[in-house]
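pinging the channel bc i need a second pair of eyes. not urgent but kinda urgent?? the chain im working w is below, pasted from the shared doc
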Amino acid sequence: MSVIILYSVLLLLGFNSISFVLSNYNFDDLFPLVILWCAYAIILGLRNGRLIILQVLQKFKQLNNIYIITCLLTIFFSYFFGMIWSVYGIITGLIIGELVNILMLNNLLKQIKTQLNNNTL
C-alpha cells in the first residue's frame, strides 16, 4: 500500500514536470484525470489485501459471486457516468465499482470471522 501512495504522491507532485519532459507539452487540463487515477490506484491497493486473504482461505465461489455483481455495477456506472463526463466519468465508475467490491469483500471477511469465532466454518 505504501508503494501505491508513494506512486500517487510522486505522480501528483511531479505531473507538470513529467508531462513536459515526456512530451515537451503542458497537460494541465489532464491533472483532474490524474487525481482520479491516483484515487483509483489507492482503492485497488485497499482491495488487494482483502482479495489475497480470501484467496488464501479458498473462498473462490463467494469471490466469483462478488465479482459478477461488481463487474456488472462497474460496467453500468462507467457507461452512465462516461456518457455524462467522458473519461472522467469512466474512471469514476471504476472507483464506484471498486468501492462496492471492497464493501462486499469486507462483508464476506466479517462473516468468515464470525464463523471462525463460532467454530462453524
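so The chain has a mean pLDDT of 92. and The chain is about 85% helix and 0% strand. — does that match what u expected or am i reading it wrong
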